[in-house]
Write a structure and sequence with these properties.
This protein is α/β, with parallel strands linked by helices. The N and C termini lie far apart (66 Å).
């Protein structure tokens, strides 16, 4: 058993003291298939590779030796899994742990219980799940790891530090999962698990590790004052580790010592910061920022920059604060996937959107609305990139589509390389430059695809130039209780602060009233939201057309149904929506298609009569008569495969079916179509990003098909964004399940008016016609147009 299997806090101590005796004891626990050459020299060599941070070298060696991990020896699987963990290669890590677990289960017996292997598997799984933010699933693995240490009943000091590391992991999983009392109990256990050593150096390290192990738990629980008494010993220990690590860095090696220095010094800095001891926090953070290696600690680096900006803000230096916020945002936007690895391992993830929020608020306060607007767009773009971060198989137009899509894989690899600690500033710059170049290549080859996998800046002037001459852009942004409206025309950008407190409750209450067409509260709630969102800027809305970009809960709001004493917004304006203003640049060059053919899906057979839409078949048959070339697919013929095969051949697509949105897994949101022999019928958002369409309009006449849930910021990731990327110029979708008769009337009116004018005005006229017969907004306000007018 390799000592390299222990987590970093153990290795810090074992590198200071003697590790040979512990290695002997751990080796005695090993069993299973082993190479004849697997001796202390071989184990020491792999330990050296791990301790010195030569993870890639170790992976290259062992992957070359074992193309198939099923043939790997157990004493190689442990170091390989650990290397994958440090390289943040999570898919390979979980595969490696699965194989190590399989072998452990196969070869354990009474003489060789293989508790160390079982412990390692549980610890690394829990750590990886914390890294990726899956706290609930991390918890049982952390509990199992700690249970194994207790089961083993090892009392030597070295294994005590294993308990510290495992209890810290367990405490963080408990705290981040909302189990406060259990987390506090874990912190108390760390303190009570201490050992006494006659060696003063070992005793000092023991007490320092106890203190450092408790600090992150207290900070996550916001018991900030509890960490202050732990500072002196922690600071002395970190200073010692830095002296040790400096010798390794001079040899060009990044090792566990220096990793421990960065983590430990960060905990000290954070403790001072959260206790508002800003002078000490400032000095500690500046020390961290002086390390060239800190730039490779992405999650920690941006939190340090953010906190440093807040310290500058507290000191009254707004310009310096903005500089730090901008640097933090650059770190956030540097990577496609913002897995917080190093930050998560010591309990700090943070809200990335908070950085944008403070910078935007500062810029507005300084009277710089155009710059604030640009950062609003970047915040929304970051939210979309986060949600799509796991997707690889995007569709791309053109003959070089495969080469373009392969650039996404290269970007992911470059991002992964940036998360790996390196000791050389030159190597860090080389990796960063490679990532910049790959992203530039994708932006040049496929700008819209690039906008889905990275944050691409859009100047406010570029957005202004893309607006229609008779159109005003109204974009909202809110965070916490701060709410802003940006009013943008071709001539100017203005920002207005609006009353934000209680916005979520107001929208939810209004939405609830809309579900009941007999509700007497709808009008008052509509006027209340109009007074909050529109009245303060009504004097600046000089055009008849409004382009609205919502944010968060506002994506659920039917703006057409907001009203004052003079009537509804739909009575005075024709509206269209976009998930973000930056989408304009990808729509502007598209050619509008007049006339053309219609493909309509109605009431797919979902295998449950309760899900039938009885008027949907009549609806699509009526609409089909308005087009010269139509294909109508009903019931069992309305399949997902038919949509994927026939969809690209039609100008107009109409789907009268159910839809759903999954806020926990947005890419699994989608539309229910019928299944067939080729597979199930659910058309997911992930499917749409892998399709190419050539549609002027997609109409989603169904239940909640337009309802997109935002995550960590904005840019609606509902089906509308997927259809826009797939190649539809516009989408008409509903925010709630509408009465079948009213829907049929509205859709018939919409397509009739579409022959006379554009989609934006056609939808308005259809809403007004429906409102004349069914006055309550429940019947006519659910449908919204997204995309080109």
């Amino acid at each position: 058993m390799s000592i390299a299997k222990l987590p970093f806090l153990i290795l810090i101590l074992l590198s200071v003291t003697s590790c040979a005796r512990v290695m002997d004891e751990m080796m005695a626990l090993n069993a299973g298939p082993r190479r004849a050459s697997s001796d202390m020299n071989e184990q020491s060599r792999k330990l050296g590779q791990l301790t010195e941070g030569r993870y890639e070298q170790l992976v290259e060696e062992l992957e070359g030796r074992y193309p198939d991990l099923s043939s790997a020896y157990m004493d190689d699987l442990g170091p390989l899994c650990k290397a994958y963990s440090e390289l943040k290669k999570y898919n390979r890590l979980f595969t490696c742990l699965d194989e190590l677990e399989r072998k452990t289960n196969k070869y354990r017996n009474e003489d060789y219980p293989l508790l160390v292997e079982e412990y390692e598997i549980a610890f690394l799984r829990a750590q990886a799940l914390l890294d990726i933010g899956d706290y609930q699933n991390a918890l049982p693995h952390a509990q199992h790891a700690f249970g194994l240490l207790n089961k083993n009943e090892v009392k030597e000091a070295e294994f005590q530090h294993g308990r510290h590391a495992t209890l810290t992991l367990l405490g963080l999983a408990q705290a981040l999962s909302g189990n406060r009392q259990e987390a506090l109990a874990s912190a108390r256990r760390i303190e009570s698990n201490g050992v006494t050593s006659k060696d003063s150096m070992v005793q000092e390290e023991e007490e320092a590790l106890e203190d450092l192990s408790r600090i992150p738990i207290y900070l996550v629980l916001q018991d900030d004052e509890k960490c202050l008494p732990l500072m002196p010993k922690a600071q002395r220990a970190v200073n010692r580790w830095e002296a040790q690590g400096a010798r390794w860095l001079k040899r060009g090696l990044y090792n566990y010592f220096f990793g421990g220095v960065i983590r430990g010094r960060y905990l000290i800095s954070k403790c001072f910061f959260e206790n508002k001891r800003f002078a000490e926090a400032k000095a500690a953070y500046d020390k961290l920022l002086s390390y060239p290696q800190i730039a490779n600690q992405g999650g920690l680096y941006r939190i340090i920059l953010f906190d440093r900006g807040r310290i500058a803000e507290a000191e009254g230096d707004r310009k310096m604060a903005q500089t730090y916020y901008q640097r933090a945002i650059e770190v956030i936007e540097q990577q496609r996937s913002t897995i917080n690895t190093e930050a998560s391992r010591i309990g700090f993830v943070g809200d990335k959107q908070q950085v944008y929020h403070l910078l935007i608020s500062d810029l507005i306060a300084e009277g710089r609305p155009a710059q604030a607007f640009e950062y609003v767009e970047r915040a929304k773009a970051r939210a979309l990139v986060d949600i799509l971060a796991s997707k690889q198989d995007f569709a791309a137009a053109g003959s070089a589509s495969q080469q373009i899509v392969s650039l996404v894989t290269e970007i992911d690899q470059a991002d992964q390389d940036l998360r790996v600690p390196v000791s050389s500033s030159e190597e860090s710059r080389r990796r960063s430059a490679r990532g910049v170049q790959v992203k530039a290549n994708l932006r040049a080859a496929a700008p819209e695809l690039a906008s889905l996998v990275m944050v691409t800046e859009t100047a406010s002037g570029a957005v202004q130039a893309l607006l229609e001459p008779d159109e005003t852009l109204l974009e909202y942004y809110y965070h916490d209780d701060d709410l802003y409206a940006f009013v943008v025309t071709r001539e100017r950008v203005q920002a207005v602060k609006l009353p934000g407190k209680g916005l979520l409750a107001d929208v939810e209450e209004f939405r609830k009233s809309l579900e009941d067409p007999k509700s007497d509260e709808t009008k008052a709630l509509s006027q209340k939201l109009y007074g909050r969102l529109v009245q303060p800027i009504a004097g600046q809305l000089a055009t008849k057309r409004l382009l609205i970009v919502g944010h968060g809960i506002l994506h659920y709001l039917p703006f057409a149904a907001l009203s004052d004493d003079a009537g509804y917004l739909a009575d005075r304006y024709s509206l269209r929506l976009l998930p973000s203003a930056s989408v304009l640049q990808f729509l502007k060059g598209r050619q509008a298609q007049k006339g053309g053919s219609l493909l309509a899906f109605g009431n797919p057979d979902l295998g449950d009569r309760r899900l039938d839409l009885k008027f949907a078949e009549d609806e699509v048959q009526t609409i089909a008569r308005a087009f010269p070339n139509t294909k109508v697919l009903l019931r069992q013929d309305a399949t997902k495969n038919a949509f994927k095969t026939l969809g690209p051949q039609f100008t107009y697509l109409h789907l009268a079916t159910h839809g759903k949105f999954d806020p926990d897994a947005p890419l699994k949101s989608g539309l229910f179509l019928a299944g067939d022999a080729q597979g199930e019928g659910f058309l997911s958002l992930g499917d749409l990003y892998s399709m190419r369409l050539n549609a002027e309009l997609v109409t989603l006449s169904a239940c909640e098909t337009g309802l997109g849930k935002v995550s960590n910021g904005d840019d609606v990731v509902g089906l509308t964004r997927g259809f826009l990327y797939a190649g539809s110029n516009s989408i008409v979708a509903s925010l709630w399940e509408v009465d079948d008769l009213a829907t049929s009337l509205l859709m018939t009116e919409f397509y009739a008016h579409l022959k006379k004018g554009d989609k934006q005005e056609a939808l308005r006229q259809a809403q007004l016609a429906t409102k004349a017969k069914y006055p309550h907004p429940y019947y006519w306000a659910a449908f919204q147009l997204t995309g080109l007018p």
